[in-house]
């Protein structure tokens, strides 16, 4: 099984109330993802981030950029729940 890549898409500009304009994570969330070890927990984290993005609005470009990153890493893009 391939590793689940970080939801970060390398934009890293924190202008939306402390959330990155690229991926929607806060600095604390980015640090937290790095410390998560189990694949199921990483997948859950990505699902949580996707739900957070839907509530906050915006970040429309993230899906395409993250899908490309997942493809390069040989893992599937997580389905929306």
Any overview of this molecule?
The protein has one domain. Helix content is about 50%, strand content about 5%. The protein contains three helices and two strands; from the N terminus they run E-E-H-H-H. It has helices spanning about 25-35, 40-55, 60-75; strands at about 15, 20. A two-stranded antiparallel sheet has the order 1-2. A hairpin with a 2-residue loop joins strand 1 (about 15) and strand 2 (about 20).
Low-confidence parts, pLDDT < 50 over ≥5 residues?
none
Average pLDDT taken over every residue: 88
Order of helices and strands: EEHHH
Total number of distinct structural domains: 1
Identify the strand order in the major beta sheet: 1-2
- The total of helices stands at 3
Structural class: mainly alpha
Helix content: 40-55%
Summarize the structure.
It is built from 3 helices and 2 strands.
Element layout with pairings:
Layout: E1 14-16, E2 19-20, H1 27-35, H2 39-56, H3 62-73
Antiparallel strand pairs: 1-2
Descriptive keywords:
single chain; 81 residues; mainly alpha; two-stranded antiparallel sheet; 2 strands
């Amino acid at each position: 099984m391939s590793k689940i890549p970080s939801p970060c898409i390398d934009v890293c500009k924190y202008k939306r109330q402390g959330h990155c304009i690229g991926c929607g994570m806060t600095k604390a969330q980015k640090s937290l993802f790095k410390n998560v070890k189990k694949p199921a927990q990483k997948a859950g984290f990505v699902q949580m981030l996707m739900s957070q993005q839907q509530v906050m609005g915006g970040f429309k470009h993230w899906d395409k950029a993250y899908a490309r990153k997942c493809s390069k890493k040989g893992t599937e893009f997580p389905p929306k729940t």
